[in-house]
Write a structure and sequence with these properties.
Number of helices: 6
Shape: globular
Helix content: 25-40%
Strand content: 15-25%
Number of strands: 6
Largest sheet: 6 strands, mixed
Structural class: alpha/beta
Strand order of the largest sheet: 1-2-4-3-5-6
């Protein structure tokens, strides 16, 4: 089995890598943290899943901005940018209706996409994810405020404070 890696460009001029594999009804996976299409394809932990999905589906995956084969120097790492990236990848792959699979930090992106485009999503499958993440940690009183500062503050200081999943994959 093989994957076809392609590229698209977002409205803010970020080049995103995406891959298609398999045949059948479309299955779209939202990006996971620290993704790299080529490494993930050969990974002992991912390969069985990707082969299984690709046997029965036309599987679409992508590297988020800052990760893998996508541009690593994107200035905007906001949630809204990630949702727009997801929309861009889906449009570039010319998918009209599909099942959507999300895990890890790709879950909130997939949830937002499904809420904005319910006519396109047949089924939404969430695995090991959440809707609000750090903003819901009630046992850590400063965590919600810290998360808001990291998300909203521009520049090198906020980049240094960002959690690992938002940093580029090397």
């Amino acid at each position: 089995m093989s994957q076809d890696i392609r590229f698209c460009t977002t409205a803010d001029n970020v080049k995103l890598a995406y891959a298609l594999s398999g045949e059948g009804p479309p299955l779209v996976m939202s990006a996971t943290w620290l993704s790299h299409l080529e490494h993930q394809w050969r990974s002992a932990s991912w390969q069985p899943w990707l082969e299984a999905f690709s046997r029965e589906h036309n599987l679409l995956r992508y590297d988020a901005r800052g990760c893998g084969l996508s541009d690593r120097d994107a200035a905007d790492l906001s949630f809204e940018a990630w949702v727009r990236d997801f929309e861009c990848v889906i449009e570039s792959a010319s998918l009209r209706q599909f099942d959507l699979l999300a895990k890890c930090w790709g879950g909130p992106i997939a949830i937002e996409y499904a809420a904005r485009h319910p006519e396109r999503v047949n089924r939404l499958v969430l695995y090991g994810t959440n809707a609000l993440g750090r903003l819901r940690w009630s046992d850590r009183p400063n965590e919600a405020e810290r998360a808001r500062l990291i998300i909203c503050a521009p520049g090198p200081i906020s980049n240094a404070l960002r959690p690992l999943p938002q940093q580029p994959f090397n």
